[in-house]
Amino acid sequence: MSLEALILVIIAAFAHAAWNIIAHGSSRSGPPFLVWGAIASTLIWLPVVPLTGGLGPGGWRGVLLGAGVSAVLHVGYMVLLQRGYALGDLSTVYATARGTGPILTVIIAIVLLGERPSPLALVGVAVVIAGVVAMGVIGRRYGAGPTAMSQPAGGKSKAPGADPTQHIKRKRRIDPAILFGLATGVSIAIYTIWDTHALREWQVSPVALMVGCGLFEVPMLAVLAWRRRDELLPTLREQWGRLLIFGVLSPLSYILVLVAVTIAPVSLVAPVREMSVVLVSLFGAFALGEQRPVQRVIASIAVVGGVVLLSV
């Protein structure tokens, strides 16, 4: 991977980590926050389009088709991500999603886009993914959420004839946050490949693609938020600061990645952008008091080591 592409993706990782920390803090707001976030992103970045190549050689056709499909995929991604954040730890959901995404992206890029990373690059990809997945495993919670049962005092079930091992079986169920993280990872892989295709096939400008995506997202998210329409104005009043930061950083993090995939293989860019997992997991451990900080640091070192291999 070129130094230019690597720098772009590392900056994108910092921006992505920052807006996900903000999104986690607003996860209970759900669709109302997402609606305002899409509006803020569109309004903030729309004036930048003429300064960054306009629509690109693909013109309106490329932008409308690329952004239209991308918006549907991104809305699915955001809904799954926020639901996961509402159910589990920040680092658990984030690391699981970001670990699943690049695995699928690399496979699809090799099979469908014909990319052929070098053997050393593939080793780096494997190390990055292993470190990211380790973050998810370290952060997982057993018995979390409403599916977990606690044993009554005295070790006896209050229900006559109840299976005394039932509470143990229930506690061993998979944390729903991990399930939503995996589903989010699948959506990440799909929209990453689609957006890469739009940029390469129709030569759409990355900024124009993101602005077009935001325009299509607003009505779809508004439909999702309709049942909670009474929360729209309170969300805007109470979280306008978060929304402004979100509106800047969320598109920025992905625009930088889109620029990077125009000069480097997506099979390499996708894993490197997951350096953001290191930042989010360390924030979760040291700022939010989430569990196992030492193990998180070790997994973080593995991710960094994999990135180094990719940059050789």
Overview of the molecule:
- This protein has helices at 3-25, 31-45, 59-87, 90-112, 119-139, 166-171, 176-202, 206-225, 232-261, 266-272, 276-286, 293-311.
- The chain is an all-alpha fold and 312 residues long.
- The protein is globular and about 45 Å long.
- Residues 142-160 and 164-172 have low confidence and may be disordered.
Briefly say what this structure is.
The protein has 312 residues and is mainly alpha-helical.
Unreliable spans are: 142-160, 164-172
Count of domains: 1
Question: What is the count of DSSP helices, taking H or I runs of 4+ residues?
Answer: 12
Mean pLDDT: 78
This entry's quaternary arrangement is: single chain
Rg over CA atoms: 20 Å
Instruction: Give the structural class.
Output: mainly alpha
Name the beta content range: under 5%
Q: Count the beta strands.
A: 0
Features:
312 residues, mainly alpha
List the helices and strands and how they pair.
Blueprint: H1 3-25, H2 31-45, H3 59-87, H4 90-112, H5 119-139, H6 166-171, H7 176-202, H8 206-225, H9 232-261, H10 266-272, H11 276-286, H12 293-311
Helix pairs in contact: 1-9, 1-11, 2-8, 2-9, 3-7, 3-8, 4-5, 4-7, 4-10, 4-11, 5-10, 5-12, 8-9, 11-12
